[in-house]
């Protein structure tokens, strides 16, 4: 047998490639199934809602009267668009971690109790100090949270 013929002989290549592909597909399929069986797949599907909030600060305003975040001007937070979010899952916190309330449902116009949906056009007004950083935070029922938007006031 000549060495030259070994390089030109393609017999046996096709079955080897077939076996390698079948093993690769089996490994990938097993990894996907294991992810969901072990509960890791649940975290992949839950994500924070996509919503846009705008901020309007009035340093001369004296209302509302809450002073949890500060005693400066009034910060109006408006839901501009995106997903509708249950108000019980929304929080307003400053850079020190202080929260306006447990949730800020009562601060949204037309949302007097927790559990009300906050949609585009809803707004909340809170008192803050000028240089504060204020975050709108979404927290789901399992305790996972995500910052939806952030505002830093003038010093």
From TrEMBL:
Protein name as catalogued: Type IV pilin N-terminal domain-containing protein
Occurrences of domain Archaeal Type IV pilin N-terminal (ranges): 11-93
Residue stretches spanning the membrane: 16-40
Organism: Haloarcula nitratireducens
Keyword field: Membrane, Transmembrane, Transmembrane helix
Superkingdom: Archaea
